[in-house]
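Worked problem 6 (solution included).
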Amino acid sequence: MAYIISSDAIKETLPGYDPKFAEKFHDISTKLADKKFEKALKNSSMKRVILMSGGSASGKSEYVSEYLKKQKIIISDGTSSSYNRANIKIEKALKHRKKLEIHAVWPTDFATAFEAFFSRDRQFSPEHFYRTHSKSRKTLLRIVRKYPEISITIIVSKYDENRKGQKMEFEVLTDTNRDKLIEFLEKNQYTEEEIKRSQRLYEI
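Solution. The predicted structure is:
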């Protein structure tokens, strides 16, 4: 089974936590998740490590649950919207000689993801949604350019109301050609303002 480190799960263990004010607990839960990740790198015999990437409510946790949780891997389930924080994790994973991968989950359209974002028990400001979706893509592009040896998987998520049980559908879009991957990432960069005004900004 995978060893999954999630700041959202850590939030629920914090004294006084209220999902209606989840944003107030975000910084501390993220810091605790980072420490837990570093400890796992040092102490776990698992060689494969996956950093999740993608904005809030993009379907990362659902993807982890459906495709990764039964594998023997360490998973950092977060947005990877901070380049500095993601870079530190990468350097530490490489230092411990782990086989590192990044799996980025992108919604087919921001409007549907935004609806899911507001339907959750964990409440954040709209700015958190715009920021994590914009900056996670910028971070991923910087990482791809800096670390050509790291395997990148991009997964497009789609919500299917007619599907029973697991409502999310996923499609892998990874191109093994690094230049084409960079071109794809460059094409799909959006500012926070663009995401705020978006309705199906890009087509697959």
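Discussion: The CA atoms of residues 45 and 121 lie 35 Å apart.
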